[in-house]
């Protein structure tokens, strides 16, 4: 290793980070892996970007730092793109872990609310729950009419039965807003760059990124949980109605489920597009449940809006046909993907309803079984990977793959043998002690 006085700075310039340690440009370029991200000329200078951004692309060293003291390299313009790209990767991982934790917390609370409805203990004083950390903000977009409908059901029941579960529904809605595309790190940076260019009247190229870096699972899970919560209220209201409650009501029941139906269709389509089969199965179940609700409420409930789609006629036969189609699609997915087996009971129950039987709600134990397998997906105890369809997961213990398995989302091969990952699996950096609450992502 050369000493500083031995280096000809005209031929081999040096780079001096804030920490005081220094390396020659060629050594620092090698340490930073410049050739992996830029096309280099014969003299070792970068000429252009060599590839588009990929999720978790800095998969070995994390955010680049000084090799001697691990000091920051953020102020070195030559490596700014690489450092900021790594920061975005880390922010995306934290976003995933945070949204996943919030979802599981809300899902557990929904189970408890459904238990209270089943036991007839819902709505009593002292049972209101406060929003978990990070769930702040205004009412989510498009909720006004649906909230008004829920409040009307509450008024007809005539007590505080739905107070706490409606508040939970609103919190799930706010969470759904917080995990949308526009809240994800890459999209937020793209929006900031666009705003800065517009303010400075600059003609710079906009910030672009590979769409595979956008993680939609959090949004799909939130949408599914929102539908599940609202459908639980509707089924409970139907039980109240069939037990003689309607005779005490002052007004006629009139339900508009067209927005719920649109959400179901969108959930199925987006899940199928991104190969999230568990969420796709849930979308089919919700669609069949909505058909069952319309059949149960008769002419008092409408599902297909003439203004939002081609289907304008709603008859018992058409509803049964639609429901059975979704049930069949859900069963097909169950036969193809073992990770969806926990939804078998829900599918059986809704099919019984469609065929004229009595709808039996899934027990709390069955619902917890659905969520229990998800608790370790982003445990943060090892290294991060993505399968060939860009579904992220972590490997614990030493963090290296020791056995082959199947991605719980799409069934693709994951893991590996003897620390060697299978083809198509992308290795991402180790993360531990992830932030458990993020009111924002300071990039």
Automatic annotation (TrEMBL):
Localization per Swiss-Prot or TrEMBL: Cytoplasm
Gene Ontology CC annotations of this record: cytoplasm
What domain of life?
A: Eukaryota
Domain RZ-type stretches: 362-437
InterPro entries with a match to the protein in the record: RNF213 (IPR031248), ZF_RZ_dom (IPR046439)
UniProt keywords, alphabetically: Cytoplasm, Immunity, Metal-binding, Zinc, Zinc-finger
Biological-process GO terms, alphabetical: immune system process
The entry lists its GO molecular-function terms as:
ATP hydrolysis activity; ubiquitin-protein transferase activity; zinc ion binding
**Pfam families, per the entry:** ZnF_RZ-type
Keyword match Zinc-finger:
yes
The record, for PANTHER family, names: E3 UBIQUITIN-PROTEIN LIGASE RNF213, RZ-TYPE DOMAIN-CONTAINING PROTEIN
Name used for this protein in its record? RZ-type domain-containing protein
Species this protein is from: Trichoderma parareesei
């Amino acid at each position: 290793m050369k000493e500083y006085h031995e280096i000809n700075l005209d031929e081999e310039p040096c780079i001096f980070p804030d920490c005081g340690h220094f390396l020659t440009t060629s050594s620092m370029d090698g340490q930073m892996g410049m050739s992996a991200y830029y096309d280099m000329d014969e003299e070792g200078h970068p000429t252009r970007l060599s590839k588009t951004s990929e999720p978790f692309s800095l998969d070995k060293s994390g955010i680049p730092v000084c090799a001697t003291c691990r000091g920051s390299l953020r102020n070195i313009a030559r490596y700014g793109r690489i450092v900021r790209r790594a920061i975005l990767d880390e922010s995306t991982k934290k976003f995933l872990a945070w949204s996943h934790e919030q979802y599981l917390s809300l899902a557990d609370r929904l189970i408890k609310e459904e238990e209270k409805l089943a036991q007839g203990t819902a709505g009593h004083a002292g049972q209101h729950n406060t929003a978990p950390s990070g769930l702040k903000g205004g009412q989510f977009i498009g909720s006004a009419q649906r909230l008004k409908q829920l409040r009307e059901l509450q008024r007809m029941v005539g007590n505080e039965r739905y107070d706490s579960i409606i508040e939970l529904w609103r919190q799930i809605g706010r969470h759904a807003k917080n995990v949308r595309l526009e809240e994800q790190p890459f999209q937020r940076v793209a929006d900031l760059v666009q705003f800065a260019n517009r303010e400075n009247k600059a003609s710079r190229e906009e910030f672009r990124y590979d769409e595979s870096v956008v993680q939609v699972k959090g949004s799909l899970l939130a949408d599914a949980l929102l539908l599940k919560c609202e459908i639980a209220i509707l089924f409970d209201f139907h039980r109240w109605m069939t037990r003689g409650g309607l005779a005490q009501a002052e007004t006629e029941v009139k339900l508009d489920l067209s927005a719920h139906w649109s959400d179901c269709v969108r959930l199925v389509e987006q899940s199928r597009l991104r190969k999230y089969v568990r969420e796709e199965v849930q979308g089919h179940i919700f669609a069949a449940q909505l058909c069952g609700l319309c059949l149960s409420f008769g002419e008092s409930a409408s599902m297909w809006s003439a203004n939002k789609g081609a289907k304008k006629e709603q008859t018992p036969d058409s509803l049964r046909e639609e429901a059975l189609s979704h049930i069949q699609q859900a069963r097909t997915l169950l036969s193809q993907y073992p990770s969806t087996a926990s939804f078998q009971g829900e599918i059986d129950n809704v099919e019984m309803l469609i065929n004229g039987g009595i709808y039996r709600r899934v027990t709390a134990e069955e619902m917890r079984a659905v969520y229990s397998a998800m608790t370790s997906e982003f445990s943060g105890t090892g290294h991060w990977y993505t399968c060939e369809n860009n579904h992220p997961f972590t490997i614990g213990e030493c963090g290296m793959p020791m056995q082959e398995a199947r991605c719980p989302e799409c069934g693709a091969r994951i893991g590996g043998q003897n620390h060697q990952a299978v083809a198509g699996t992308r290795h991402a950096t180790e993360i531990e002690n992830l932030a458990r609450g993020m009111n924002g992502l300071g990039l």
